[in-house]
Design goal:
The structure holds two protein chains of two kinds.
Chain A (H helix, E strand, L loop, with lengths): L3 E10 L7 E11 L4 E5 L6 H8 L7 E6 L2 E2 L4 H10 E4 L12 H11 L4 H15 L15 H13 L5 E5 L7 H18 L2 E6 L2 H4 L4 E6 L2 E6 L1 H5 L2 H6 L6 H11 L11 H14 L5
Parallel strand pairs in A: 3-8, 3-9, 6-7, 7-8
Antiparallel strand pairs in A: 1-2, 1-4, 4-5, 9-10
Chain B lengths: L15 H4 L2 H17 L3 H18 L3 H8 L3 H14 L5 E5 L2 E4 H27 L2 H12 L9 H31 L9 H7 L1 H24 L18 H23 L2
Antiparallel strand pairs in B: 1-2
Classes of the chains: A alpha/beta, B mainly alpha.
Chain lengths: 287, 268
């Protein structure tokens, strides 16, 4: 049984008004426990709408969302349970910070779980350590933090709830390259330690290709689904729906067009470097 | 979802009603409100209703859109009806149960009050449905400009109104977003005692205030960057012009009021 399963999910905004818009159109998707999945698509493809269904924030116009085989909309209790089991970090989560201190803000989620104080304390410290926030920041106001630190504090606020599934909507948007690498590495490390499932929403291919599985959305539907190799093999289709290839795959493609005999399935810089070095070893070609 | 709120919403279109000068529509709306209170007979209500339906038809506004806008007012309407039904004094008692007494005058008064509210609110909705917020503030500014002589800061007032209207949808969107984020962290906004619920709103209100101040700051900066320095001597990109259709609209409005007064005189 899959951890999360969507069956025939459809969502129509403002149904019955002149502004009616079908954001998700009959999407079925199953995510296994422990997977790292990237949900890719250009702006307006329905990604953000889709993830709001995973923790019952939006009710589907039709279709069901199953968590461990059970409909999350079955009762108020199941909706609440889904909110805690599926942790969602929305775009620009730093705008949700509100408490007087960083510590209290990270503790907001665990407190809503009605945990006792020592457990809340443990979770806050652990989550802060995972995102790289030092304990000496705990007593500051979250509004005094730098942009990158605010982002970390907001992510920690969701990690502290210890969800089974972590959903992140463009977690690195607006961060500098170093901050982006650092945050991603920390998130993947958190997943390894906790054995959790991660669903990353992004349109940055260099982030997407670190996941085991890529799901590509366009116009409210899933158009491609598979390993990065499988998905990046459809380079023409990706470009036609307004997405890029990862830089490495793009370079490999250009080199191939110039007559270099590179193997298929190159989408990370490491693989590209290896392949080029291998060619050089053979002494074939112009490099 | 908060997005579904229709109060004060503008439905873009290209009908005669949409193209009327906003000043015309503002004056006619005020006249319409006054007219509703001049109605003194059932025939008068029928006439106002017919006029409303005709404008709806011409402006391509579905009656359902109007009804949806009335939804938030159900409580006030019911409250008014009940109040008038039971607390109107009269001798023509319809029935009596203990201290509750319903008179024929009471029923009549209740029905006509409800009709008045319905007609009044749907009429003013027609204004916001067919006129963009910008056009409304432009029109208001022009209409109020004589007050400048009395040192009323008309331009600043209308700019403030314009900005406020402009940011309503943005703030609704923002509220939606913050609400989602806090609900995702287990915020419970729907249950609990009143003080508990009030406290539960803090995680919503604080980020909302912070972002409103940030936006205000950014807007002020952006306006200064474009050398904004007040209303005196500013020209506008879109000048307001009265056209023949505005004259026709005024004539129809006058006819409506004359009709109401005539029906009242005749007692129909």
């Amino acid at each position: 049984m899959s951890l999360i399963e969507l069956r025939g999910l459809t969502h129509i905004y403002s149904q019955g008004t002149p502004f009616e818009k079908k954001a998700i159109d009959d999407v079925s998707l199953a995510i296994e426990a422990g997977q790292t999945v990237a949900l890719i698509g250009h702006t307006g493809s329905g990604k953000s709408t889709l993830i709001s269904h995973l923790n019952a924030l939006l009710k589907p116009s039709s279709g069901t969302v199953l968590l461990d085989g059970e409909d999350i909309f079955a009762s108020k209790a199941s909706i609440r349970a889904a909110r805690f089991r599926v942790g969602v970090v929305f775009q620009y989560p730093e705008y949700q910070l509100f408490e007087e201190t960083v510590f209290a803000d990270i503790a907001y989620g665990p407190k809503n779980l009605k945990l006792d104080d020592s457990e809340v304390d443990r979770r806050v410290r652990e989550a802060a350590a995972f995102v790289g926030l030092d304990a000496d920041q705990f007593d500051r106001s979250p509004l005094e933090l730098s942009g990158g630190q605010k982002r970390r504090a907001a992510v920690a606020g969701v990690l502290a709830m210890e969800p089974d599934v972590l959903v992140l909507d463009e977690p690195t948007a607006g961060l500098d390259p170093a901050g982006r690498e650092d945050l991603l590495a920390r998130l993947f490390r958190w997943r390894e330690v906790r054995g959790a499932t991660i669903l990353l929403v992004t349109h940055d291919m260099s982030i997407a290709n670190r996941c085991e599985r890529l799901v590509v959305m366009s116009g409210g539907r899933i158009v491609l689904d598979g390993t990065p190799e499988e998905v990046f093999a459809h380079d023409g289709q990706l470009v036609s729906i307004g997405l890029d290839l990862p830089a490495a795959a793009h370079i490999a493609k250009l080199l191939r067009e110039r007559g270099l005999d590179l193997p298929a399935g190159i989408y990370t810089l490491d693989r590209l470097a290896e392949a080029i070095l291998a060619l050089r070893g053979k002494g074939a070609g112009p490099c | 979802m908060l997005k579904d709120i229709t109060l004060g919403q503008y439905f873009p279109g290209d009908t005669v009603v949409h193209r009327l000068d906003p000043r015309t529509k503002l004056i006619l709306t005020v006249a319409y409100i006054a007219a509703i209170f001049m109605v003194g007979s059932w025939g008068g209500y029928a006439l106002v209703f017919a006029a409303l339906a005709a404008v709806c038809a011409v402006a391509h506004i579905k009656p359902r859109a109007l009804l949806k806008g009335l939804k938030p007012l159900v409580f006030i309407i019911v409250f008014t009806a009940v109040l008038n039904l039971f607390f109107t004094r009269g001798d023509d008692i319809l029935f009596q149960w203990k201290f509750l007494r319903v008179t024929y005058t009471g029923v009549e008064r209740a029905v006509s009050m409800v009709l008045r509210i319905l007609l009044l609110v749907s009429g003013t909705f027609l204004l916001t449905y067919t006129t963009s917020p910008l056009a409304i503030t432009d029109g208001l500014e022009k209409l109020l400009s004589p007050l400048k002589k009395l040192r009323v800061p008309v331009y600043e007032l209308s700019l403030m109104m314009c900005i406020a209207l402009r940011f309503i949808p943005t703030l609704i969107e923002e509220t939606d977003r913050i609400m989602s984020a806090q609900k995702a962290r287990g915020a419970d906004l729907e249950t609990g005692t009143l003080p508990e619920r009030a406290r539960a709103l803090l995680p919503l209100l604080i980020p909302l205030f912070i972002s409103a101040f940030r936006r205000a700051d950014e807007l002020a900066l952006a306006m200064e960057c474009r050398c904004y320095n007040g209303g005196e001597g500013r020209t506008r990109m879109k000048e307001l012009h009265m056209a023949w259709r505005d004259g026709a609209a005024f004539a129809l409005g006058a006819a409506l009021i004359a009709g109401i007064l005539l029906l009242r005189r005749l007692g129909i």
